[in-house]
Amino acid sequence: MDWLTDTKIPIGKWAKGFVDFLTDNGAWFFDGLAFALENFIEALLFLLQLPHPFLMAIVVAALAWVLRRSIGFALFVFLGILLIVNQGYWEETTETLALVLAATMVCMAIGIPVGILAARRPVFYAAIRPVLDLMQTIPTFVYLIPALILFGLGMVPGLIATVVFALPASIRLTQLGISETPDELKEAGSAFGGNSWQILWKIEIPSALPQIRAGLTQTIMLSLSMVVIAALVGADGLGVPTLRALNQVNIAKGFEVGVAIVIVAIVLDRLIRSSRD
Q1: Whether residue 31 has pLDDT greater than 60
Q2: Radius of gyration of the chain (CA)
Q3: DSSP secondary-structure letter at 88?
């Protein structure tokens, strides 16, 4: 079986050559993109860190009550934020939230239009399905390397890696929701003189909202699961103390950060879900 290895297909060399080509010819584009994304994250971080943590706890708890109409959940949100502040991880939590929110906005801005196109063009969806599978299954560390080369250390490569990992969820669930719109509703819209855009905005998207919201929830959870990976490429947030606890085998610090991450995950998940869920 040695003949199988004697003629090794140079997949790695091809990938390296492609990244080198991008570095040599597209540096202006990636530098501009990195500048825009970094400023976007910094703006979100400024808005999250501007209010006092206690005021932020009151605002988020009030939002939780408005969305869920549950005193118990609002109290959990309020006490959870105060617990994070008490443990000394408020700054890291806001940094993680800024990264998660930025990644979620980018994913939904790309995922919803692509999902709609995929639902209306089955050939297009068949073409991108292997790409989506690859994005979800390839080890994250593999595309962290070109992200580091193209964008350098910091929040931006962490954002790019998070988007690559979380984007398929929004595309797939949007495509599922649009494609499962009952034909009777679309036929009724056409019968009343609705054109393609009117049917999309007034029938298909409202019908697909539960799946789109599920895609939003999945995107947020997947983005939050990348906090440790993002810390490996210089992104700030809760991943940094998590890595320190791992390197030092510090059980106390690891548990403290883990509780903070769990609180953030529960709050974000419940805020996105409707009160009927």
Answers
A1: yes
A2: 22
A3: T
| Torsion angle (degrees, nearest 10) of CA 175, 113, 171, 34 | 180
Interatomic CA distance for residues 57 and 75, integer angstroms: 10
**Cβ–Cβ under 8 Å, residues 99 and 223:** yes
Give tens-digit pLDDT for 172-197: 999 998 888 887 877 777 777 777 78
**Residue type at 120 in one-letter notation:** R
d(CA 256, CA 251): 9
pTM for the whole structure: 0.85
The tens digit of pLDDT for each residue in 239-275 reads 888 888 888 888 888 888 888 988 998 888 888 875 4
Burial of 175 (0-12, 13-18, 19+ CB in 10 A): buried
Q: Are 200 and 234 in contact (CB under 8 A)?
A: no
Domain boundaries, the chain: 14-272
Q: What is the CATH number of domain 14-272?
A: 1.10.3720.10
